[in-house]
Each structure stands twice: as structure tokens, then as C-alpha cells.
Write a structure and sequence with these properties.
The mean pLDDT is 97. The longest helix is centred in the N-terminal third of the chain and has 20 residues, at 72-91. The strands form 3 sheets. The protein has a 5-stranded mixed sheet. It folds into 2 domains: 5-136, NADH Oxidase; 149-190 and 236-322, 3-Layer(aba) Sandwich (NADH Oxidase). The chain is built from 12 helices and 11 strands. It has helices at residues 22-33, 72-91, 123-131, 149-161, 171-189, 192-200, 222-234, 238-250, 265-284, 294-297, 302-309, 335-338, and strands at residues 45-49, 54-58, 94-100, 109-118, 165-168, 202-203, 213-214, 254-260, 288-291, 314-322, 339-340. By secondary structure, it is of the alpha+beta class. It is globular and about 55 Å long. The structure holds flavin mononucleotide. Flavin mononucleotide binds at residues 37-41, 73, 76-77, 80, 136-137, 139, 213, 291, 293, 330. Residues 37-41, 73, 76-77, 80, 136-137, 139, 213, 291, 293, 330 line the site of flavin mononucleotide.
Length: 341
Amino acid sequence: MTHNPLDLWNVSREDYPADGSEIEKLKFMLRYAILAPSGHNTQPWIFKITNSHIEVYADRGRELPEVDPEHRELFISCAAALFNLRAAIRYFGYEDHVEILPDSKNANLVAVVSLGGQYHPTDEDQQIFNIIPKRRTHRLPFKNLNVPESVVFKLVAAVESEGAWLHVIGQDEKQAVADLVAKGDELLLSRPDFREEFVEWLRPNKSNAPDGIPGYAFGLGNLASTVAPFLIRKLNVGKSQGAKDRKTLLNAPLAAVLGTPGDTPHDWITAGQALQRLLLVARKEEIYAGYLNQPIEAEELRPVLRDNIGVDGFPQILLRLGYGSEPRLTPRRSLDDVVVA
Ligand SMILES: Cc1cc2nc3c(=O)[nH]c(=O)nc-3n(C[C@H](O)[C@H](O)[C@H](O)COP(=O)(O)O)c2cc1C
């Protein structure tokens, strides 16, 4: 029987080994960790299970040197998975014990996680955990509906509770940020190596690959999903993509920059956990998010973005948020592929 990478989303808390060992419980909770978002759906994480804890590693074999030369998004992705693991630990009634970057000699060890004392999950803990399998990245237009102020407050609070900040882009800032997104597309997509890297992670709709982004996630039909990689490889589509993304940002019901006070691996892990909490709180409110990170990924534009929105610190992720129909699932690698004993 061939393995279907979409089955991984079919997690059921009913399968939790309540009478199992701590390690069996932690291993079960990893089913939720791997549902996290990651750059180009690389899923750049490895989990090492020891006697009493799980070590979360960044998988440098899955780095993206063109779009992410400093490994910033690599750490953000691993931290999003870490957040899911923490959420599962609390849901199943334990304090989440986490040491971030505990080994100065091993920069790839993102965190060490273990089960703490007994814990009574709050309503918020339960809601956040239950929504993990329903989060998706949204790349199609949102409905023309505003996000209520009360929800915006919740999103800001979610991000701040993880030690990051969220700057909601005001109407007076939107045009400048949209222009930066377009400029970012032009700069990045003009580089053949950047396009090559992107195409390497783009998958035809009918692919059974357990990673990468299927064309349907971009709204492509079956034929277009097989042709797109050839076109992107050959053509500099920066101008047209830039024009499209500029419009997408201008039409977004809500756009926001998630950032951190510093720009170290520690800050990236903070950003990743804050991102995942925000995405889950948003989804709980029926709101989806899509990414427009180009002005952060194009390094010359990052300080310009920071000045345009008048923040201290470092922009890490640029999101648009709104209401829309539920996107299809993207694949995941099986636990066997990401867990080492
Ligand atoms: C750090 C990070 C950066 C990302 N950057 C982008 C991006 O620039 N554009 C985009 O469309 N999606 C971006 N994504 C979303 C991923 O492509 C997405 O999480 C992945 O394909 C898995 O799909 P899912 O989120 O629907 O589960 C990013 C995700 C993360 C965690």
C-alpha cells in the first residue's frame, strides 16, 4: 500500500496513549508538531527521542540558501513545530518544559522538550490545540470582509505573549508596503538561482511527494501545475508577480508585520512560536493568513520596511489575513522520516 502524505493530518486525540510511557506520549504529540507551516514546505525539522525528552533539531539538509541564506526562516519553521508540540503537551495535562538553544556547541539544536508536572489546560489551551489540524496557508483572494478590532487585539496579544511584536499596517502605510512587496518580487525573481530553488520545491498537483508545495496551493489546475516550473525556471516573472502581489496586499482586509527586538537565532525561535500562536488564534476566529515576506527576504528592503512602518527591532514575517474558503491540505513527511531514536 502506498503511503499517502495527506493522511498525516488525520490526527485523532482519541489515539493518545494515556497509559503509555512519557516517551510514547511525547512521540504521539509529535503528530501535531509536524503539521506546522514551513518555508516552501521543507519541514526542516528532526526530532531525537531520548530517555526522557525530545530534542528538536534544524535539518540543515533542508535549508534554502537562496531565499533564506541566514537560516532565519529555517529556525522560524522549526519553532512553529515546537509551538505545536508545547500546545499538545499542555493539552494532555503536563507543564511544557522547554530549553531553547541549550547547547552553545550545537547551533542546530533548537530546543529540548520534556513533560513537566501535572497541568490543567485552560479553555484557550484546548482551543489552540484543537485547531492545529485546521490551520492552512491561504494564497487565494480573501472575502471582502473586515477583521473586527476585537480579533485584531487577540492577534496582537497572541504574538506579544510569545515575546514578539505585531505591527498592524495602517491604511496610510499600505501603499508603501505594497510597493516594497512588488519590489521584493522583482529583486528575488530576477535571480535564476532563486527561481531554481523555488521550482525545486514546487510539486505537480498529482505528485505523491511528502514535502514541497503542490500547485493547487497557488490555485493552479493540474496542467498548469506541471507547466509552471518550466516557465518559472526560464522566465523572469518578477514584474508580473510583483504587480499581482502589490494588489493582493492592497486588497488584504488586514496586513501585519511580525517582528522581534533582536535578530539572533533566539529571536527567530521567538518569532516562529509567536507566528504559530497567531495563526492558530486567527484560525480559531475563522481567519486565514497568507505570506508576503518578499521585503524581508530581499535583505536590502528589510531596513526600508522597518523605516516605513516606524518600528524598532526586526521584521520577521509579513502576513495578510482575512476570511476565505478552506484551502486544501499540503503533504507532510511521515513521523518515521523525521524522528530519530
Ligand atoms: C518561515 C515561513 C516562511 C514562509 N514564506 C512563505 C512565502 O513567502 N510565501 C508563501 O506563499 N508561503 C510561505 N510560507 C508558507 C509555507 O509555504 C507553507 O507553510 C507550507 O507550504 C505548508 O503549507 P500549509 O501552511 O498550508 O500547511 C512560509 C511559511 C513559513 C513558516
